[in-house]
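Exercise: predict the structure of this protein bound to copper (II) ion.
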Amino acid sequence: MAFGRTDHRAFILALGLISAAAGHTTTAADEPYKAQIDALRKSLEKYQDYKVAVRDLYLSTVGCVHYSGEKISGHMEYLKGAMGVHFVNVTIDGPPDPMKPNVLIYEPVGKELKLVAVEWLVPLTDKTKERPSLFGQPFMGPMEGHEPLIPAQYVHYDLHAWLFKNNPLGMFAPTNPDVSCKDSDFALLEAPTKMVHGP
Ligand SMILES: [Cu+2]
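Solution:
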């Protein structure tokens, strides 16, 4: 089916409305934030070389994290797929900065690491008044830390953005079924993270 330019835009808008109505905000079209997201992607392109990321203090947490899609009540619903290897910059703190994610995520492909996504990880503290959001996307959580790489006591909100690899589940979905840990010597199958009550 061929869409004219206007038809196409109307179709995307309709899709956005449908998914917003269904509460699937993480798969909604990111159209209104497109310019901001494009600028963010451009500013992070240098991190496609993981050594540049390490020099800027994004440090590897080694394990390639993936999920089986198992559902447990009271736990996060992570659909089957991987995140990859998280490189965390603990020198970035304060409220989430849309232009400065504190996590970069790499997929091991052959003997290389490919930058696939970024993440904002925000601890829940007594100062937290509301759920953070960026690009119109409410963060997920609060949830416990992701064991075994992050201690359970690290209660946090997080938001992933698949800026460098398409995610069929949506730009802001936590897991990506097209990302794999098969080429990693440090694949870690994680259980879905426990949710915590918070603002
Ligand atoms: Cu992640």
